[in-house]
Amino acid sequence: MSVSVGDTAGAGADADAGSGPAKAAGGVLAATCISAFVVNANTSAVSILLPAISEDTGASLTSLQWAVTGYSLVGAAVIVTSGALGDVFGRRRIFIGGLLLFVASCVLIALAQGGGLVIAGRAVQGAAGSTILACGLSLLSAGISGKAEMQAVSLWGAASAAGAAAGPLLGGVLVDVTGWQGLFWIDAAIAAACIPLTLRTVPESSDPTRPRSIDYAGTVLVAAILAPFVFAVTEGSNWGWLDIRTLGCFAVSVASVFGFVLVEKRVGAPLIDLALLRNKVLVGSTVAILLVAGVINAIMYICSLYFQNPAALDMSPLEAGLATLPAALGIVVTAPLVTRFVDKFGGRTVIAGGFAIATVGLLVLAFVQDSWTYAAFALPMIVLAVGLGLANGPSSAIATACVPDNQVGAASGISNMGRYIGSAVLTAVIAAVFNAVGLHNKALGASTSEALAKGFARSSLALLLFTAFGIALALLVGRVRPIGKPQAQHYAAAAAGTAHTVPTKSVPKPALSPASGPPPPPTTHA
């Protein structure tokens, strides 16, 4: 999937940008930014809704954890494939397909009478959401040129970040006003409205230079690696870690890894170019992105459950949404500052420092007691979010700055897949720790409030191990070659980096279909 942002073409690019049809530019910007906001708001809101969904459907919170991890699992499997489908069959066509799928998933969830359909709908939503984000960003690149393109990607990133930050609050408001189903009905209506807007104003585009084959086998194998692994982690404490079911799930994951490697070596257009995995800087930055996404999603998950539990803080959904807002805003507000910090201190230092700051926040949360009020949670949550924001920005930039120009699209795909994998795996791991520790302490005679606090504290300690690993990772990977003074495209990439890795290297502009006019000139990947 090719995506370009930035302006090194000079005045000619600006002239082309100015002469492009304003209707098309405005249409693609509106459709992609609105849909990005909705997708990210929907994703971050679901954890706040889980207690209400559990009460209404009778499904346990343990099983509804799959409404969160299932979304990310499918997103990880589909994110690269959806971009490839857009390159081959038309980005507008696949983008609209993603919108239709998103609408269908929202309706399925809103009408669900049981937890199973909610989980199934969220899995479908994972495919839809990753498709909308991947193809939406490509449509921006194809439809807008020059400095306007940079501004458009900045707005797209801001819309994504705003959606992620506002989601828990919007979810909390809607639970009180409309019931938990209201979020999905409203999201379905907004996504549906983007379809005619896209059809009327967005030109079709594709990549005629890309091989026409699609690595469907690789997509299936990614899911076959992740789903059994997460299932084993989630159920292992109940089954027993040496139970045949647990070991069987791990065995399927391992076998799927070998199968994936074999497939990727043989297909013409692999999901992942295995040669890129020899690039230790790319692998290191992707693991850092994985850790950031996993930690922030896992902590938001257990916060939403703990804050709303009657035996803990006993908040309403709206109060819980407000309570998680500082953490969500912390990672968003930090993004614009990252580029200047990297220019002054270097990427490795900022990443290691960010993980160190996050570790401090988690260390405080590892001492949670059942007597704590919300005030005791607020500051360490903000510290954690700021630290993760500092680690995320440079990691996203380095992921594509460390490869040749002709590999930035593949590197971007790997890092974005890592973001989804981190969200799925770490949320599953921490949910399992939270539940197991709580049940263990209850069995030892602790009160429900004490057991919940112990579960939260131990979960924070487990997450601390991941952020501590992030510090070591940043220091061990090695120095990254400086890229010079930050330009506007680097700030654009930083704005988008909270939701999606946007490359910052020079690549050819994506081609438009014949009906949409001649392709614009080359610009800069950001």
UniProtKB/TrEMBL annotation:
It is found in: Cell membrane. Pfam families: MFS_1. Keywords: Cell membrane, Membrane, Transmembrane, Transmembrane helix, Transport. Residues 496-526 are annotated as: Disordered. The chain crosses the membrane at residues 64-85, 94-113, 119-140, 152-170, 182-202, 214-232, 244-263, 283-308, 320-338, 350-368, 374-391, 420-439, 459-477. The keyword Transcription does not apply. SUPFAM superfamilies: MFS general substrate transporter (SSF103473). Residues 28-485 form the Major facilitator superfamily (MFS) profile domain. InterPro entries: MFS, MFS_dom, MFS_trans_sf. Residues 516-526 have a biased composition (Pro residues). It is a multi-pass membrane protein. This is MFS transporter.
